[in-house]
Amino acid sequence: MNDGMHAYLEWADLGEGRRKREFQSYVRNVAEARYVMRRVLRIAEDRAKEHGLEPLGHQALLQVYGAGDGITVSHLAGRLDIAAAFASRLVRQLEDMGLVTRSASATDKRVTIVSATKEGAEKLAVIDDDVHRYVAFLQHELGAEERHMALSVFAFYVGLDPDSQVAHAIRAEVGV
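Given the sequence above, the corresponding structure tokens read:
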């Protein structure tokens, strides 16, 4: 078992004493996970800019399109961790670009529903194709241990049960 997976297994079910013993390995995993996250986010941000969207606008469009039947401005603000007024301005910018539409909720006319347009979905697809090419290159740069360290921290961040199928699959790949 590599140090990263060992630290995850220990960290996932620990008491205070064990947490202190495994802290350096855990922090090493956090550093690797944050490095990978930062690299992937930077790739996505750069690709979005190259295709005419600011990173937050790209994130907003992802949230809107990912919501399927639309998303309220306040829910979008929460998903982006920004003020509702700022989300409203962001939606207006995306609407001016023809990437989203706004409409009043059928149940509450005070609530605005934001939906992606066909052009918005197409813009996301083009950016996503570009992101995938760059991420594939990043994946080849990462070694197996780096990938497993990052995965172990992602698993911890999302509260993955160490006995889940996904955790077992991660351990199986590592040879645990």
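The CA atoms of residues 13 and 162 lie 8 Å apart. Try to locate this feature in the token string yourself.
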